[in-house]
Amino acid sequence: MRKFTTRALLVAAALSASVSTLAASELNFWSWRQEDIAAYEKIIAAFEATHPDIKITYTAHEAKAYNTILTTALAGGSGPDIIHTRAYGSLEAISGAGYLEALDGQVDLSLLSADELLGTTLRADGRIYAVPFASQTVVVYYNKDIFDANNITVPETFEEFKAASTALKAAGITPLANGTADGWTVEIMSGAIMPNFYGSGFFGEVTSGATDFEDARYVGALEKMSELAEFMPTGFEGVDYATMKALFTSGAAAMFIGGSWEINGFRDAGINFEIMPGPAAEAGGERMVATWLDGGYGVNAASENKEDALEFIRFTATTPFAQMLTDELNNVAAVDGAMSSDATLSRVSSFHSAATPYIMLVAFRFDTPTGSTLLQSGLQELMTGAKTAAEVAADVSNGIKTAE
User: Fold this and answer.
1) Mind listing the domains of the chain with CATH numbers?
2) How does pLDDT run across 241-261, given as a tens digit for each residue?
3) CA angle, 166 as apex, 179 and 219 as ends, to 5°?
4) Could you read off the pLDDT of 217-244 as tens digits, one per residue?
5) CA 243 to CA 231: how far, in whole Å?
6) With the C-alpha atoms ordered 140, 349, 184, 400, is the resulting torsion angle positive or negative?
7) CB 375 within 8 A of CB 396
8) CB within 8 Å of 294: residues ≥ 6 apart
């Protein structure tokens, strides 16, 4: 009898283990951040260690194609369980269509500020559809070795920035790695240069309708932007994002205007770099940095594993997750409580005392054509001399007013 009981218990235990294994929920997590695959796999492993019945597969799609791939899958009734969303207008495109699960009331969002949550809130119903993950900041990277070898003092004003660029060019060094082949990169470049000329009050005025993009302050900022064309690579209109990075990391170019997400890649490339905010319009003037919420983590409303997906989303709203994000990705986490030991990331955070919204992404990507589409096209024409600053400003202003 005892032998039979022992055997029965062993069989029952084996069956229980088998059922438990079969019951493990397998979730798909889609993103556009191919450069972060190793970091996310590490973060996911930490989550799975405390949630052994949930398994998550992280898939990173090509960044430019991501929105199309995602919306096509969602429209077809499929797509991932966990969605790395973009913010603002891009989030509205999928949350407004009913593809995302509303999170308020299901996830504790108390460690996130109202400004951060604004980027993942659908304006039509005021509900929150993703947990914000990180802010990004536009900065100027510079090669310290090149600056030192050419006795270049780190510039603080725009005129000093141009003087330093002139000296570098005379020494046979390309001052700026930036090109215009990829329109989004020249919009990023504008985020370092233009705010210090149109000023801190312009964003509030243009978003409230008190002024428009033909405002003299904005036109003047575009004119200053155009003055940097001579310091960009020869044939800059054909220089794409990958080439920009190669020029900077190889030491062929002394400076690179880009987002704070480049820190890890430049560090891995072995370049001795430092960062600074965009130059002030004049001595003692503001040195603002353009910032924005980069995106969030949401749940597919049609997921068959919705509760398990929500469990991971709850994890993303905690300080331990924010700390891992900070440590692994060198991002400024949206969730409060994370501390960075990285000096460069801490410097990025210090710039936020003079932050301004990255204007087109934050406020003018909700309609078609988007403000970014209009500005990117205009900047490409501005930098080559095909259009004047006033013409570009008029195109942007009129395009936004007639967007649908």
Assistant:
1) 26-133+294-317 (3.40.190.10), 136-292+350-402 (3.40.190.10)
2) 999 999 999 999 999 999 999
3) 60
4) 999 999 999 999 999 999 999 999 999 9
5) 16
6) negative
7) yes
8) 86, 87, 133, 134, 135, 136, 261, 331
